[in-house]
Amino acid sequence: MSDRRLEPSGDPGHDETQPAWQPPAMPADQARLGLDRNTVEGAWIEFASSLDRRKPAHRVVAWVLLLLIGGPLLLAAAQQVASFWPL
Fold first, then answer.
1. CA distance 49 to 36
2. Do residues 14 and 8 lie in contact, with contact meaning Cβ atoms separated by under 8 Å?
3. Which stretches are tagged as biased composition: Basic and acidic residues (predicted)?
4. What is the DSSP code string of 56-69?
5. Phi-psi bin for 24: left (phi > 0), alpha (psi -120 to 50), beta?
6. Domains of the chain: which residue ranges?
């Protein structure tokens, strides 16, 4: 029988490895900007960075996100160009 006091927390099931559900830490440059997973922008960055390019469903989600973010940007740019050069 082992001594429970030798375990880090006194719990025989305690393990020092990170739990599987814990997301990876944000990179240092994003943390300097004040982004974390509790901010809207940080949550988007964390979600997008957790996608795995080897999984087809993740690739579809990445393309949908790209269209959702890039579509309005392209439409706004086209509207600005059209206001300078009316047809």
1. 13
2. yes
3. 1-17
4. HHHHHHHHHHHHHH
5. beta
6. 24-84
Q: Which residue has the tokens 């790209």?
A: 66
- Asked if 23 and 43 touch (Cβ cutoff 8 Å), the reply is no
* Tokens describing residue 65: 């996100």
Which residues, 6+ apart, have CB-to-CB distance to 22 below 8 Å? none
Task: Give 10-15's long-range contacts (Cβ < 8 A, gap of 24+).
Answer: none
Q: Are 66 and 74 in contact, with CB atoms under 8 Å apart?
A: no
Q: Using one digit for the tens of pLDDT, what is the confidence trace for 15-36? A: 566 566 666 667 778 888 888 8
With beta carbons less than 8 A apart as the criterion, state whether 23 and 50 touch.
yes
The predicted pLDDT at position 81 comes to 93
Residue carrying structure tokens 């050069």: 85
Residue located via tokens 């927390």: 9
pLDDT (mean) for 31-46: 84
